[in-house]
Design brief:
This is Molybdopterin cofactor-binding domain-containing protein. It holds the Pfam family MoCoBD_2. By secondary structure, this protein is of the alpha+beta class. The chain is about 30% helix and about 20% strand. It contains 22 helices and 28 strands. The strands form seven sheets. The chain has a seven-stranded mixed beta sheet with strand order 3-5-1-12-9-10-11, with helices on both faces. Strand 14, helix 11 and strand 15 form a beta-alpha-beta unit. Helix 12 runs parallel beside helix 21, helix 18 crosses helix 19 and helix 20 crosses helix 21. The longest helix is centred in the C-terminal third of the chain and has 28 residues. The protein starts with 17 loop residues before the first helix and ends in a 26-residue tail after the last helix.
């Protein structure tokens, strides 16, 4: 008899994969070396918008080590290849063809024009210097509002407009709430604000890379991607390669954050070059290329109108967005704002709601999914305007939230956006957060600092949030015109010695799937954690799946594993009954053993695995296999939530912001591995705080990215962040048997408004009601001086002030 195995779910195990990932002793795409492999380098446009008048590549062809040089006409002579979009959000959405290489015109700085194949990466890059390109300037299009004005220069002349699509949701039309215009016109308080979501760069650790071997019976593609299965399907559709002749492998991937969710022109380019040469080729971008051309995130203008009664009861919410698509449409980019459309109402009981988004073309790198994908943008806007409403009403901002949020006894609750939240307890999470934060004590200290005129003011920021995780029910995606489903696949192989191989379609890029999946299977089958091996990321071994994004891995992929394990147990049960000479009805399964009820007669899963392998003594008609697979399609999203509180100290003489303390209490349902969950929260907090205080992709008036290095694009280090105080409450999800809710994006979604609310709260008595992100010292200082929402220019003198400031930053 085997000893009772301690439950694995809920245990803080160190990740199995850490040894190879942390030491770097693993296979990143750029580590892959194949016999006879050539290297690619791409000549990229320095111009944001221009005609290609002439292109002379003869010098590159004669350069040392160069094997071939290709232009757009060489790789795609018919001009038939265009990058795919999986989410056409409206039937009339305008989506210009994005070629593999620029074909006659460049539409953003960094667009590829020529690819060189050479014996070494250095020789390929050196050869780029010998290429001559003559450009004819075209007007750049950078400002979204100006792009939509009559007579504005067009990014794509053949489209006749810079408007890609307009998508709307109205609660009155959908039958989920009242008419928002009626709510606004009849309310005692109406507040309007404009918020800016700046453009961000995912900045993953490993730049994008692709290796292609065309020499076997299949074309093998290694890519630093989040989506090997989607990449395989989209490559087949884009290039016309039979899908069964494509094998896509995502080896260990050094981060993604949504930035590796696309299907890249460089991936298609690498495949085409490999096919033409009949040799393995590798493309690996530099960090500068990555910052310039890997898709960017966010970049929205948000016009928000909220209405309420004098007692603080909200009555309506109206959202009008402009979303910058860049020069082309990404794989899911058009739908990113639509994900946010269902979250602007957040945890609040708005009776009426209207949402409208206009997607706009500009001469910039395209935008697409970035950690949270629409949900952070929505949470930021609603949490910021709730603070503004509280100030308008003279209420404590926490009191206003408590007055309007969904109470725990009201779950399940169908929102004004039409989603049904299954479980939650905002009161419990908030109470715990306030206790850990010392909310009342910090409010008293804040008042003391104001009364004393302390040059360092204290602000308290609140963010109470929920999000839709587990992308996604396939029927919901279908109703939103998304091309694919939201199911996930898993397979379990019982090996003869009782060990277990788990194949998952949810391919990890640093999340800890191998560890968490092993814990789930260990509990389900009653085998030791160490006896489980997780296989992923290769379409030949993991032959189907929907990959990893949108906090879906555990709540969809993990559940598929549970379902597959249930089938393994069901297959093993008749074998156990046969071996124990009893009826199946007399058996119970627990801790890896089948036991005859009321007796000590039992047999283990390991014993059954070997019995099935030998096939000497099986029930009549049974095939000798316990292997099982399952595909799980969720019926609903999962809805994690939490309360994040931030205390920020603002030096009013310099504008410097220091985060004094940060407390978050998240409800992510049942936690499989608390250590992994804590890491996910910490990483998410770092990214959300970075948006608030540090990061911004900036273009000059010619469309050149001026933040093209990490010297200019500011990423925070550990020294720039406080020690986080984290805790959890738990209301298990009812939409999946694990009770899990998802954690990968929570920190990013909640933290940005918490920090901005804290800084604005610290200086609100100087007449400041907004500061554009990132909240740099200069922007904070300027806002204090002018009592303005404008980060760059002079504004109205509202409220108190510090008087004039001399050049050294000292108060006069």
């Amino acid at each position: 008899m085997t000893a009772t195995i301690e439950p694995e779910v809920g245990k803080s195990r160190r990740r199995k994969e850490d040894e190879r990932l942390i030491t770097g002793r693993t296979r990143w795409t750029d580590n892959i070396v194949l016999p006879g492999m050539l290297h690619l380098a791409v000549l990229r446009s320095p111009m944001a918008h221009a005609k290609i008048v002439s292109l002379d590549v003869s010098g590159a062809k004669d350069a040392p080590g160069v094997i071939a040089v290709y232009t757009a006409k060489d790789l795609d002579p018919d001009g038939a290849i265009g990058m795919p979009c999986a989410w056409p959000i409206t039937p009339d959405m305008k989506s210009p063809r994005r070629p593999v290489l620029a074909d006659g015109q460049v539409n953003f700085a960094g667009e590829g024009i020529v690819v060189v194949a050479a014996r070494s990466a250095a020789e390929a890059h050196d050869a780029l210097e010998a290429i001559d390109v003559e450009y004819e300037d075209l007007p750049v299009v950078l400002d979204m509002e100006a792009a939509l004005a009559e007579g504005a220069p067009l990014v794509h002349e053949d489209l006749g407009t810079n408007e890609s699509a307009v998508w709307k949701f109205d609660s009155a039309e959908a039958g989920t709430g009242g008419n928002v215009e009626d709510a606004i016109s009849s309310s005692e308080i109406v507040l309007k604000r404009r918020f800016r979501q700046q453009r961000l760069i995912p900045a993953f650790m490993e730049p994008r890379a692709c290796v292609v071997d065309p020499t076997g019976t299949q074309i093998s593609v290694w890519s630093a991607t989040q989506v090997p299965h989607i990449l395989r399907v989209m490559t087949a559709l884009t290039l016309g390669i039979p899908e069964h002749k494509l094998r896509v492998i995502a080896p260990d991937v050094g981060g993604g954050f949504g930035g590796k969710i696309g299907v890249l022109p460089e991936e298609m380019m690498t495949i085409l070059v490999a096919q033409k040469l009949g040799k393995p080729v590798k493309w690996n971008e530099s960090r500068s290329e990555s910052i310039l051309t890997a898709h960017h995130g966010r970049d929205q203008i948000q016009d928000i109108t909220i209405s309420a009664n004098a007692d603080g009861t909200v009555t309506g919410l109206k959202v009008e967005l402009l979303a910058n698509m860049g020069a082309y449409i990404g794989l899911v980019g058009p739908g990113v704002p639509i994900l946010g459309a269902f979250m602007f109402n957040a945890i609040y009981k708005f009776p009426a709601y209207h949402f409208a988004c206009t997607n706009v073309f500009t001469t910039t790198t395209l935008t697409d999914a970035y950690r949270g994908a629409g949900r952070p943008e929505a949470t930021f806007a609603v949490e910021r305007i709730m603070d503004e409403l509280a100030d308008e009403l003279g209420m404590d901002p926490m009191e206003l939230r408590e007055k309007n949020w969904i109470k725990h006894e009201e779950f399940p609750f169908t929102t004004v956006a039409g989603l049904t939240y299954d479980t939650g307890n905002y009161e419990a999470a908030t109470a715990k957060a306030k206790e850990l934060f010392d909310y009342d004590g910090l409010r008293r200290e804040q008042q003391q600092r104001r009364d004393s005129g302390d040059p360092v003011q204290l602000g308290i920021g609140i963010s109470t949030f929920t999000e839709m995780c587990g992308l996604a029910p396939s029927r919901v995606l279908g109703s939103l015109d998304y091309a694919a489903g939201g199911w996930e696949y898993a397979q379990i192989h019982m090996l003869p010695t009782g060990k277990v191989e788990v194949t998952t379609g949810a391919s990890a890029h640093g999340q800890g799937h191998e560890t968490a999946w092993s814990q789930i299977v260990a509990d389900q089958l009653g085998v030791p954690f160490e006896d489980v091996e997780v296989i992923h990321g290769d379409t030949q071994s993991s032959h189907k799946g929907m990959d990893t994004y949108g906090s879906r891995s555990l709540v969809v992929g993990g559940v598929a594993i549970v379902k597959a394990a249930e089938k393994v147990i069901a297959k093993a049960k008749p074998v156990a009954a046969h071996l124990l000479e009893c009826s199946e009805d007399d058996l119970e399964f627990a801790g890896g053993k089948f036991t005859v009820k009321g007796t000590d007669q039992s047999t283990t899963m390991q014993d059954i695995a070997f019995t099935v392998f030998a096939a000497h003594n099986l029930p009549d008609g049974m095939e000798p296999s316990l292997d099982s697979d399952a595909t799980f399609d969720p019926e609903n999203f999962s809805y994690p939530h939490g309360t994040h509180l931030c205390a920020a100290e603002v030096d009013t003489e310099t504008g410097r912001v220091k985060l004094r303390s940060y407390v978050c209490v998240d409800d992510i349902g049942v936690v499989v591995n608390p250590l992994i969950a804590e890491g996910q929260v910490h990483g998410g907090l770092a990214q959300g705080i970075a948006q608030a205080l540090f990061e911004e992709a900036v273009h000059d008036e010619s469309g050149t990215l001026t933040t093209g290095t990490f010297a200019d694009y500011l990423l925070p280090s550990a020294a720039d962040l406080p020690s986080f105080t984290t805790a959890r409450t738990e209301t298990p999800s009812t939409t999946n048997p694990l009770g899990a809710k998802g954690v990968g994006e929570a920190g990013t979604i909640a933290s940005t408004p918490a920090v901005v609310n804290a800084v604005v709260d610290a200086v609100r008595h100087f007449g400041v009601n907004d500061i554009e992100m990132p909240l740099t010292p200069m922007r904070v200082w300027h806002a204090i001086q002018h009592g303005t929402t404008d980060a760059g220019g002079p504004g109205s003198e509202a409220g108190g002030g510090l008087g004039s400031i001399d050049a050294s930053g000292g108060a006069k």
